[in-house]
Design a protein that fits this description.
This protein is of the alpha+beta class. The chain has two domains: 31 residues; 222 residues, Porin (Beta Barrel). 19% of the residues lie in helices and 59% in strands. The chain is elongated, with a radius of gyration of 29 Å. The chain starts with a helix and ends with a strand.
Length: 257
């Protein structure tokens, strides 16, 4: 009888300990941080200022939104073409600036906010820029700029890892790739030009775009098949529904709460 009583007591103590351990895990999860505010340190090297908010929605999943502003940074543009029987070359630098937004969804095999994750992301951007050029008119060489805008949206997949550096501080690193589609608008409204000049620009765009090889850094030959128009005050070209690659990456530091 005494042996049986001791055995029952030990079983009761063991079951109580197991129950406490089982309830402790959900309790710790209950008070764990459910959201993180971050900024992409690597983005500053590319002159992009951003803020990133990540919210846990399940034990292994989270959703987030990254938004920011692209400060002007140089992208090289080069073009080679046959215009009026002569080889024409252009080399210039553009500095796009504007807003961008990246929503995303993450799956963590371990648990949300901790360890490796797979991310599905989207992207939207709206940039403006100037394209410098010069031309000869009435014996003068005139320097001018094309006004440009570019907007697009797309998405892709990324791999990353997020690790705690302290109780509330997290380090987040990721790299991904995707595709997008967008539109580009270029126009000139130089006051030194006249109606016939604008019409000439339109005809040149329409007639010679197939003979020109225009490359933009990373985006390559995205400036093809333009829709050219002109008026008495400007000439312009639209490049619609162009496919382009999307790179997603960063090293972020954040605070969890």
């Amino acid at each position: 009888m005494r042996t049986t009583s001791i055995t029952l007591i030990l079983l009761m103590i063991g079951s109580t300990t197991l129950s406490a351990q089982k309830s402790a895990a959900p309790l710790s999860d209950l008070f764990a941080p459910k959201r993180i505010v971050k900024t992409n340190l690597a983005g500053y090297a590319l002159l992009a200022v951003s803020a990133n908010y990540e919210q846990q929605v399940g034990r292994h999943t989270s959703v987030g939104l990254l938004g920011g502003y692209k400060l002007p940074s140089v992208i090289k543009v080069s073009a080679i073409g046959d215009l009026d029987g002569e080889n024409q070359t252009y080399a210039g630098e553009v500095e796009p600036r504007g807003l961008f937004v990246n929503p995303y969804f993450r799956y963590y095999p371990n648990k949300a906010f901790h360890g490796f994750y797979l991310e599905a992301f989207g992207r939207y951007f709206n940039y403006s820029f100037l394209v410098p050029y010069d031309y000869d008119k009435d014996g003068r060489t005139i320097a001018a700029n094309l006004d440009g805008t570019a907007s697009g949206m797309g998405g892709g997949l990324a791999l990353g890892v997020q690790v705690p550096l302290g109780t509330r501080v997290f380090l987040d690193m990721n790299l991904g790739f995707g595709m997008g589609v967008g539109n580009i608008h270029l126009e000139t409204n130089d006051p030194n030009l006249e109606l016939e000049d604008y019409r000439s620009i339109q005809r040149n765009i329409e007639q010679y775009e197939d003979r020109a090889n225009i490359e933009v850094f990373i985006l390559r030959d995205i400036l093809t098949d333009p829709i050219a128009r002109s008026s008495d005050t400007k000439a312009w070209a639209d490049f619609n529904n162009k496919l382009f690659p999307i790179m997603r990456g960063g090293i972020s530091i954040g605070y969890a709460f």
